[in-house]
Amino acid sequence: MHELLTVDEMSRADRWAIAQGTPGLTLMENAGRAVAEAVTARFKRASVAVLCGPGNNGGDGFVAARHLSEAGWSVTLYLLGEREKLTGDAAEMARRWNGAIHPMTGDAVRGAGLIIDAIFGAGLSRPVEGVPAELIQAAARAGTPVVAVDMPSGLHGDTGEVLGAAFKAVLTVTFFRAKPGHYLLGGRRHCGELLLRDIGIGEEALGELLPHTYENCPSLWLGGFPRPEFGDHKYTRGHGVVVSGGMSTTGAARLGARAALRAGAGLVTLASPSSALMVNASQLTAVMVRAVNTPDELTAFLEDKRRNAVLIGPGAGIGGPTREKVLAILLSGAAVVLDADALTSFEEVPRDLFVAIEGYFAGPAVLTPHEGEFKRLFKDIEGSKLERARAAARRAGAIVVLKGPDTVIAAPDGRAAINTNASPELATAGSGDVLAGIITGLLAQSMAPFEAACAAVWLHGEAGRAFGPGLIAEDLPEMLPVVLRDLF
Ligand SMILES: NC(=O)C1=CN([C@@H]2O[C@H](COP(=O)(O)OP(=O)(O)OC[C@H]3O[C@@H](n4cnc5c(N)ncnc54)[C@H](O)[C@@H]3O)[C@@H](O)[C@H]2O)[C@@H](O)CC1
Ligand SMILES: [K+]
Questions:
Q1: 105 and 235 housed in the same domain
Q2: Which of 214, 302, 325, 340 could form a disulfide with 332 if both were Cys (CB 3.0 to 4.6 A apart)?
Q3: Per-residue pLDDT tens digits for 214-226
């Protein structure tokens, strides 16, 4: 499992390892050596400027400097602040460094072929300014490659937010587990390649910390991923329903329906207004189409409990009729995916939606807003993308998929995953409709909703990557067989 640790959890993991008998000095030695090894493995020998801060991140820097120097590299070390103020393990590692310790000034990186950034890591507590900020600018201007120890200085480990200024690293070496800030968008832009290195903290530390943030990887959900078994028939694989918009806005629902079928639902029916029946029918083959006009007709249609997962929103239209259909679906007990117009329709009355989701008869609900839709529904929720998705999931009592290049999937119980495999090609019209359809297809197969949402986001990302340039939304469902074949 790819757990992500907050800054606080990571420092508890360090303390746990120390309490279990691994000295802090050993952890620091391992961390610094891992950085030096990563550098020698990836870069041609160059003159290195090692920038050390006043805390333990700087301590790692002293160790890396020693190992690089022993390997024959030309190393110049700069310290922010006074050597006498170093304490604990960092002070000891400074004693073990035989070279000179230069005061860190604005021209510390001039002429360097490579920079090791060990100024601030997990202990960053305020915006970066003064000499470190000047060096961040100087490195960017000169285009000198930067290797960051743990986090690029200036980046917050929990939020991926840049405080003041931050190095743009080509490589970041972090320890034990990655942090949310490495993967949230701001952070990802600054980390470059991310290397995870073991420094001697036992996996059992996780049993103490019980982290609940993850990188979205198959290990998180593969165990619950539905696979057809011998003896299955189409009804045992679930029946997805996608609510179509009117005559001129039917394409989005068809994309969702196709994706739900490709994701493995046994049957998928498009619930279409009569006026759009011909348009839909003429373009569908494996997906079925039925005339369903009003909220009451939708209720009647969903009385057949085999129709167990419903998608509404793509092309649905904004307003009262869509709201009423959403409420009808929630009363039916089917699992529901609410996307696009189904979310915006509740802009003025979000409480009505959340109350209905919490309703006695309601099945699991997955909300798939992009940033704009999110703001309409959760106006007052602020913080990092991770914090916002989590808060929204708790408020709505639903799985929230907050979409973007760093899509976050959050559950009301606090679990959250950050997705890391999205390709920029996914930013294309209809891509979100396909994602909502994949979730629907997995829910129809009774996959648990958090896992279904995570799996769908990952499959969607892989499908985009597998297709590559020139991608349009129609290609995504057709890539699913390739992606699924690789997965199994
Ligand atoms: N035992 C441990 O805790 C281990 C820690 N390790 C390293 O230690 C790091 C965390 O060490 P620390 O908790 O000492 O924190 P840092 O070394 O990241 O930074 C803390 C120091 O920086 C100062 N500071 C923070 N933000 C500042 C700003 N914007 N401007 C000026 N000064 C600022 C603080 O006052 C403090 O002196 C990790 O990132 C990792 O690199 C590793 O050595 C592994 C073992
Ligand atoms: K750093």
A1: no
A2: 302
A3: 999 999 999 999 9
